[in-house]
Amino acid sequence: MKKTYSILILSFFLYFAGNAQKYDLSEKEGIISALHKKTFIVPNYGEIRFKYDESEYGLLKFDVEYTVNNGRIKKTYDLSTSIPESNGGFHMPDYIKGFSVSKKAELGLVKREYPTSFELLENGELYFRDKPNQTFKEYYETTIKKGNINPWKINYILCPLK
Description:
It is a single chain. The protein is an alpha+beta fold. The protein has one domain (about 20-160). It is built from three helices and eight strands. Strands 1-2-3-4 form a four-stranded antiparallel β-sheet. Strands 5-6-7-8 form a four-stranded antiparallel β-sheet, with no helix packed on it. A hairpin with a 2-residue loop joins strand 2 (about 45-55) and strand 3 (about 60-70). The longest helix has 18 residues, at about 1-20.
């Protein structure tokens, strides 16, 4: 009975250890395999798909197809992003990669109705930065009155793999 119980526990451990996804985001191949030809659902907005394009000057370039659902209307945007192969490892570790998506060769700020800032983790999870939900009064209280230099309440929301 004890032997059977031990084998059962070992089987569960091996199953979950074998199915746990982990990418080495300090390596070019790890970043590519985490994103290339994968589609993620962006909750309440639509879905986003990545396709590796090229690598130059330490940046991995991806073509991004972002399909946004505005009620009954679906609109697809052709965007791109560049992700550094390495963050340097000292101030910013390589187990997380932050990036933004935008139109190719677009200069300046553009108002968007969908999230554009994302964080990729080494376990393959992708999160987007939701818009801050802070009033002016809350901002004023935390910055001007209390001297906090980082007043934003940032929410990260998981983008499940489709």
